[in-house]
Structures are given as structure tokens and as C-alpha cells.
């Protein structure tokens, strides 16, 4: 494969990925909530002038939650496509996928607390 075909292929793949991200944000309420939280946390980061390391941690947490939320949505869509009627095993799979999002959200909330609680407490000193 030539270098130009490789680059063109990667550009097309990026286009499909961006299309998928836009569809996800436009159609999924859970991602819309996460995006709103991400915006709020970004504004808070600028307000409190958090450090570069804190920005890295916050950005990774936002990316992990939103990415995992996308994978959860994908797992649910595939499960519903394969077996549209209620099935105990499909429900179990969907619960596990949602559980992964919750675990990441809890860990991210802890990271957010570690970052922001000192800044918030400093406002009252």
C-alpha cells in the first residue's frame, strides 16, 4: 500500500469516527449529560486556574467517561438489534456495560474531588 493511500484511508476513517461522535452527541441523552458536565468542569478548571497535571487528569476522566458511554451505547444497540425482545442474558450484558460507566464515573468524581475540594475550601479561608 502506498503512503498516499494509507493517509487517505486514515483521513476517511477519522471522518467516520467524527461522524459517529456527532451522532452519539446528538442522539444519546447520557452523552449529552456527560458533555454538559464536561463543559462545567472545563469552566471550573479555567475559573480555578488548575495546574497542567490537574488538566491532564480531568481531560482523561472526561474522555474515559464519554468514550465508555459510547461503548455502552454501542453494546446496548447491538444487543437490541440481535435480540429486540427482553432476554435475561441480554439484560445482564447491558447491565455490565452500564456498570463499567458507573465505575468510571465514580473514579472520575473522586479525581474531581481531589482536584477541586482544595480550591473550593480556599475560597472560604
Summarize the entry for a quick read.
The chain is mainly α and 125 residues long.
Feature tags:
125 residues, mainly alpha, Helix Hairpins, 90% helix, flat
Q: Count of DSSP E strands?
A: 0
What's the CATH class, please?
A: Mainly Alpha
What is the CATH topology assignment? Answer: Helix Hairpins
Mean pLDDT: 95
* Beta strand %: under 5%
Q: From the alpha-carbon coordinates, what is the Rg to the nearest angstrom?
A: 19 Å
From the helix content, strand content and strand pairing, which structural class follows? mainly alpha
Uncertain segments are: none
CATH architecture: Orthogonal Bundle
Q: What's the number of helices?
A: 4
Largest sheet: none
Number of domains: 1
Helical amount: over 70%
Helix-strand pattern: HHHH
CA distance, first residue to last residue? 63 Å
The outline comes out as flat
Family: Belongs to the bacterial diacylglycerol kinase family.
Binding site for a divalent metal cation: 28, 76
Active site: 69 (proton acceptor)
Organism: Nonlabens xylanidelens
Topology, element by element:
Layout: H1 3-27, H2 29-48, H3 52-82, H4 88-123
Helix pairs in contact: 1-2, 2-3, 3-4
Structure commentary:
The chain is built from four helices and no strands. The model has no long low-confidence stretch (mean pLDDT 95). It is flat. By secondary structure, it is mainly α. Helix 1 (3-27) crosses helix 2, helix 2 runs antiparallel to helix 3 (52-82) and helix 3 (52-82) packs antiparallel against helix 4 (88-123). It has one domain (3-123): Helix Hairpins. The protein has helices at 3-27, 29-48, 52-82, 88-123.
